[in-house]
Design goal:
This protein has 14 helices and 19 strands. By secondary structure, it is an alpha/beta fold. α2 runs parallel beside α14. The model has no long low-confidence stretch (mean pLDDT 96). Its EC number is 5.4.99.9.
C-alpha cells in the first residue's frame, strides 16, 4: 500500500483520490478552502442556487467510468440527462440558431438558417473524426510519452496550423466560424493561438451530445465528496499546501502550515504555479482568465430561453438559465467577455433580453475575485500556440513520484478533460 497525498479538492483531486483509494492506496487529500468541489461547487443566496462553474458536460462516459471504477454506478447516484440543444446562438446579423445535439438536427437547423450551411458544417465536424480517434488512443485516454509519440500524434502537435487559420480557409460563413470558436472564446482563448486539432470539440458535442445533472452540476461534487468518505480517504479541509518536499530529486512529502505529510506519491490537482517546487516547470505557461460573472435571481415573467444562449459580438455574452429557484422565480447566470463598458444586465437588454425589472437579487464576481476564491483560474492553461500542449504538465512531471491532474494538467480544462486527467494519473500510479 502506497501513501498518496493529493493537493486540491476540486473534481480532479477528488476523482484521482477516489480512484487510487479504491485501488488500495492510503490517500490523504488537502484542500485550502472549507469545502470540497472547487469550481464544481455552487453559489446560494436568498433561496437561489447557481452553478459556480460548468452547467453541463460533454463525454458522459468520463463520469460514468469514474463512478463505476470507484463504487456505485452513476445512475444510482445522479440523474445525468441529455440536452436536446447544444445551445442557442444569436449572431451579430440578427439571425438566430437553436443548435441541436444530433447530426441530423444540426443539418436541418443550419439549412433552415441558410440552404447549404448544414452540409458545410457537417463537413467541418466530420473532418475531426480521425483527430479524435488518434488523440483518444494516444493522448486523452492513455498516459502519453512526450519523447516517444506516434507519428500521427506528433504531426498534430507539431502542426503550425491554428484554429483561426483553418476556419478562415474552410468555413466562409462567419456564423459557422462563430459556432466553431465559441467554446474557446468563452474560456478566454484566442482562436489564433489554439491548435487546429482542438476544433474537435465540435465533433464531441455532435457525436456524444451535451448533458446536465438534475439539480445542478454541483451535485457531482457533493456525491464525490461522499464517495471519498466511503473509500476511506483522509480529507483535510482548510489545509493549503505550501510546497512539495523533494529529497534526492524525488517527491517525498507535502509541506503544510502544520508540518510535512509524507508520501510515496504526490498528485497536484491545483495550479502548479502556486507551489515553488513546480512553478519553474510551468514558467512558460499562463492561466486562462475567467469571465465577468453575474448570478441573478428573477421574479415574474421572463423570456423563455433554453439552458444556454450565446449573444455574439463584443462583448460576448452567455446566458445560462438552469439555476435553482423558488416557485415563480428564476435563477440565471450571465458571463461576459471582451469590451465590457457597462453593467451586464444593461448589455443584455441591448440584445432585447431585458430582465432588469424582474431582478430581486444578484451576485457579481469579477475575474480577479474568482481567481482569489478558487486559488487559481478554473479554466486551466491559456493556449499560446502549438507549444502549450507540451508545456502543460501531466500526468507525469520531470520530478519522480510527482504527478499533476485537474484543469491545469493534461489533457486540459473542462469537466470531461479534468475527469480524464484523474484517470491518467491513476493509471500511471497503478494499483497498490
Amino acid at each position: 500500500m502506497s501513501r498518496v497525498v493529493v493537493v486540491g479538492g476540486g473534481l480532479g483531486g477528488m476523482a484521482v483520490a477516489a480512484r487510487l483509494a479504491k485501488s488500495g492506496h492510503e490517500v490523504t487529500l488537502l484542500e485550502r478552502s472549507p469545502d470540497l468541489g472547487g469550481a464544481l461547487g455552487s453559489v446560494s443566496e436568498q433561496g437561489f442556487t447557481w452553478d459556480a462553474g460548468a452547467s453541463y458536460t460533454l463525454l458522459p462516459a468520463v463520469l460514468r467510468d469514474l463512478f463505476r471504477k470507484t463504487g456505485r454506478p452513476l445512475e444510482r447516484e445522479l440523474d445525468l440527462e441529455p440536452l436536446d440543444l447544444v445551445r442557442e446562438h444569436r449572431f451579430e446579423d440578427d439571425t438566430t440558431l437553436a443548435l441541436p445535439t444530433s447530426r441530423a438536427g444540426q443539418l436541418r437547423a443550419l439549412d433552415a438558417l441558410e440552404p447549404g450551411l448544414g452540409e458545410r458544417w457537417a463537413t467541418h465536424v466530420d473532418s475531426y473524426t480521425e483527430d479524435w480517434e488518434v488523440l483518444r488512443q494516444h493522448y486523452f485516454e492513455h498516459p502519453w510519452e512526450r519523447t516517444d509519440l506516434p507519428d500521427a500524434v506528433r504531426r498534430r502537435f507539431d502542426s503550425r496550423e491554428m484554429l483561426h487559420k483553418r476556419l478562415k480557409r474552410t468555413l466562409k460563413d462567419e456564423r459557422l466560424r462563430d459556432l466553431a470558436t465559441f467554446p474557446f472564446l468563452a474560456d478566454g482563448h484566442d482562436p489564433r493561438n489554439v491548435p487546429a486539432w482542438m476544433g474537435l470539440v465540435a465533433y464531441l458535442e455532435q457525436r456524444f451530445g451535451t448533458w446536465h445533472v438534475r439539480g445542478g452540476m454541483a451535485r457531482v461534487g457533493e456525491v464525490m465528496a461522499g464517495r471519498l468518505t466511503t473509500r476511506g480517504v483522509t480529507v483535510l479541509l482548510g489545509t493549503p499546501a505550501c510546497d512539495v518536499v523533494l529529497r534526492d530529486g524525488r517527491a517525498v512529502a507535502v509541506r503544510t502550515d502544520e508540518g510535512e505529510i509524507e508520501a510515496d506519491e504526490v498528485v497536484v490537482a491545483v495550479d502548479p504555479r502556486g507551489l515553488p517546487a513546480l512553478a519553474p516547470l510551468v514558467e512558460r505557461t499562463m492561466p486562462a482568465i475567467p469571465p465577468v460573472v453575474c448570478h441573478v435571481g428573477l421574479e415574474g415573467e421572463v423570456p423563455d430561453l433554453p439552458h444556454e444562449v450565446v449573444l455574439h459580438g463584443d462583448p460576448l455574452l452567455v446566458v445560462r438559465t438552469g439555476g435553482q429557484a423558488p416557485e415563480g422565480r428564476h435563477a440565471w447566470t450571465i458571463h461576459g467577455r471582451g469590451k465590457i463598458a457597462e453593467d451586464l444586465l444593461r448589455a443584455l437588454a441591448r440584445h432585447r433580453i431585458d430582465v432588469r425589472a424582474q431582478l430581486v437579487h444578484r451576485v457579481d464576481r469579477s475575474p480577479r475575485e474568482l481567481v482569489q476564491q478558487w486559488g487559481s483560474s478554473p479554466l486551466g492553461v491559456l493556449w499560446q500556440g502549438r507549444g502549450t500542449v507540451r508545456a502543460r504538465l501531466g500526468p507525469d512531471t520531470p520530478i519522480p513520484h510527482l504527478h499533476t491532474a485537474g484543469a491545469h494538467a493534461t489533457p486540459g480544462s473542462g469537466l470531461p478533460f479534468v475527469g480524464l486527467s484523474a484517470a491518467l494519473v491513476a493509471e500511471r500510479i497503478g494499483p497498490a
